[in-house]
Amino acid sequence: MHQTFDAALELNLLHANQEGADHNREHFDQWGITCLNIMSSPGAGKTALLEKTIIAIKDQLKIAVIEGDMTTELDAERLRQYGVPVIAINTGRSCHLDSKMVAGGIHRLAHEYNPEEFDLVLVENVGNLVCPAEFEVGEHAKVALLSVTEGEDKPLKYPVMFQEADCLLITKTDLAPYLEIDLETIKANVKQMNPHVTIIPISAKTGEGLEAWFNWIKLQTKKDRVFATNL
């Protein structure tokens, strides 16, 4: 059976993007940087999470952020106040970052700073529950956020992001008592899609679960783990 034109075009786009992602990862590995791709629907709390993360660990790990947004630099400005480099990328009408866009961010980072001084690059992807998971950007791990306000069924209705995630943060848990929501059901639905994912319930407001999240990051940023891929 012959592929449709649209299907063939999509495969070509994904293949080209993957080549770019692999090239980006080579840069990160060369510099000893771990890259995390932070993904979620709009309003799940990505920027608030990054604010808390930067404050907590910037004295232990040297951090840079690549901030993706469709039109503004509002989130980038929020993060710059914490004294870390933030490279803003506007995607226009595109609902996700791709490897070429992130390559541009990497080149800017390398031009303005010494990249070998960094331990961690956090990529805040465009708010979308579908597209970002299909386009790698050179990350070493994918982190998905799911707010309790989004409901228990989202992992089943939008499976790709949850299947691809290495870590799943259930956010805004402080709101759970006010909603008809069951955290155990969310966890079970996520595990149905991805049995191996690490699940951490958190609240950026109360601090619940944040220490477990910070510890997970630190495990990803060990230099020997990064360079082991090149042996």
Automatic annotation (TrEMBL):
Belongs to the SIMIBI class G3E GTPase family. HypB/HupM subfamily. CDD domains: HypB. One of its GO terms (biological process) is protein maturation. Coiled coil: none annotated. Residues 37-200 form the CobW/HypB/UreG nucleotide-binding domain. It comes from the Bacteria. Keywords: GTP-binding, Hydrolase, Metal-binding, Nickel, Nucleotide-binding, Zinc. InterPro entries: CobW/HypB/UreG_nucleotide-bd, Hyd_mat_HypB, P-loop_NTPase. This is Hydrogenase nickel incorporation protein HypB. GO terms for molecular function: GTP binding; GTPase activity; nickel cation binding; zinc ion binding. The lineage of its organism: Bacteria, Bacillati, Cyanobacteriota, Cyanophyceae, Pleurocapsales.
